[in-house]
């Protein structure tokens, strides 16, 4: 059975992705796994929106997306971020193909709530055969989270939720969120393992806030699929296994631990 690993790379880490991160993708491939990279680009989108003097705001962790905001997000995600990651992987001597959810209708989505969020989508179908073709060719697919809707329009999708939808559709066994912190922290200490109940408690008490909220929600959604393990880790995690996995906070199903 082919083991697919989804590696979501946060926009917060984009400027700081080290050779170690790209080596970890190579290590995954060398050990027979099939990594797929899904990336964000939130901070770079913010910078470009400011430069262009386009207003945007976040509602429940999602960017309210008008048409000019969508055009800017697509320019940064499908252009700058996607090609940066593809070229860095290629520098490692690996094959990589970058695409957004628009290409080959890879990510199909429906608008969540146009009045509240504008052009923001939730994925309802992934064209998995396209990813299979690329992986058969030996490439690491690198995916930007812009999706297409049923009338061929484009929608902005949160990258954490895109990663989780792709993980479920591809029957992935592992989902890894690489971000700018080494894991989930509480009382200045990193939590090594956490379940849904404890996550809810930490959201309620405000210990988990901001961009970490959609991330843990996407992680929990991922656990409902075939996935054995969801990990939130830093690009500079303290320990990387021979298979290329970086240490961080492991999110487990409620029944797996007693807390
Ligand atoms: N309990 C927590 N532990 C660690 N980070 C947290 C926590 N709660 C909120 N955060 C914030 O979440 C951020 C990561 O989310 P985000 O900025 O959206 O990253 P990305 O761009 O990688 O998706 C961290 O930089 C931190 O500020
Ligand atoms: C709808 C929505 O919020 N889309 C995100 C897509 C990029 C993203 O998710 O990037 P990070 O992983 O860096 O957060 C946005 O426009 O910022």
UniProtKB/TrEMBL annotation:
Keywords: Amino-acid biosynthesis, Arginine biosynthesis, ATP-binding, Cytoplasm, Kinase, Nucleotide-binding, Transferase
CDD domains: AAK_NAGK-like (cd04238)
Binding site for substrate: 41-42, 63, 156
Catalytic activity field: N-acetyl-L-glutamate + ATP = N-acetyl-L-glutamyl 5-phosphate + ADP
GO molecular function: acetylglutamate kinase activity; ATP binding
Primary localization class, coarse: cytoplasm
Domain Aspartate/glutamate/uridylate kinase: 4-233
Compartments where found: Cytoplasm
Any Gene Ontology biological process: L-arginine biosynthetic process via ornithine
Family matches, as SUPFAM superfamilies: Carbamate kinase-like
Listed name of the protein: Acetylglutamate kinase
UniProt organism field: Sinobaca qinghaiensis
Gene this chain is encoded by: argB
């Amino acid at each position: 059975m082919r083991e697919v690993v989804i590696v979501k790379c946060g926009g917060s880490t984009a400027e700081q992705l080290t050779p170690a991160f790209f080596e970890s993708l190579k290590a995954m491939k060398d050990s027979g796994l099939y990594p797929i990279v899904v990336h964000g680009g939130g901070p770079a989108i913010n910078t470009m929106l400011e430069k262009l003097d386009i207003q945007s705001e976040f509602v429940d962790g999602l960017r309210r997306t008008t048409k000019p905001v969508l055009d800017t997000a697509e320019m940064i995600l499908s252009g700058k971020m996607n090609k940066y990651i593809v070229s860095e992987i290629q520098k490692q001597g690996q094959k990589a193909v970058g695409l957004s959810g628009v290409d080959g209708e890879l990510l199909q989505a429906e608008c969540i709530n146009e009045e509240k969020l504008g052009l923001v989508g939730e994925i309802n179908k992934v064209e998995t055969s396209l990813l299979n073709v690329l992986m058969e060719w030996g490439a690491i697919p690198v995916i930007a989270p812009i999706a297409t809707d049923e009338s061929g329009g484009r929608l902005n999708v949160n990258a954490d939720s895109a990663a989780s939808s792709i993980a479920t559709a591809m029957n992935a066994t592992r989902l890894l969120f690489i971000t700018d912190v080494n894991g989930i922290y509480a009382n200045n200490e990193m939590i090594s393992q956490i379940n849904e109940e404890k996550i809810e408690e930490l959201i309620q008490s405000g210990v988990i806030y901001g961009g970490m909220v959609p991330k843990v929600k996407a992680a929990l959604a991922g656990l409902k699929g075939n996935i054995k393990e969801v990990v939130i880790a830093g690009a500079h995690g303290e320990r990387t296994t021979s298979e290329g996995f970086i240490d961080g906070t492991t999110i487990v199903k409620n029944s797996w631990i007693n807390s």
